[in-house]
Design a protein that fits this description.
Order of helices and strands: HEHEHEE
Shape: globular
Low-confidence stretches: none
Number of helices: 3
Helix content: 25-40%
Strand order of the largest sheet: 1-2
Number of strands: 4
Oligomer: single chain
Structural class: alpha+beta
Strand content: 15-25%
């Protein structure tokens, strides 16, 4: 499950891919996923991800994504 929990995809796109066959974008951070989701207005209803469903492991906090700051090469980098 750790690999799934580290995967950041828009769940609306993921569910739609079964009908559209379009490739789903995998985002490198929760922040990048959050920006895409808000800009595209593609919000997956939390109550649709049942407790026993794999989707629960893919749910992310989109409106207030957790961010981490690290210093790399003297510059601050925000990680999602």
């Amino acid at each position: 499950m750790q690999a799934v929990e580290r995967t950041h995809v828009n769940l609306v796109d993921l569910v739609d891919t079964f009908g559209t066959r379009r490739k789903v974008t995998i985002f490198s951070t929760v922040l990048a996923l959050s920006k895409y989701t808000v800009n595209q207005e593609k919000f997956f209803p939390r109550n649709n991800a049942k407790a026993e469903n794999l989707l629960k492991y893919l749910l992310r906090q989109i409106m207030n994504p957790k961010m981490k700051a690290v210093v790399l090469g003297g510059k601050i980098k925000i990680l999602g």
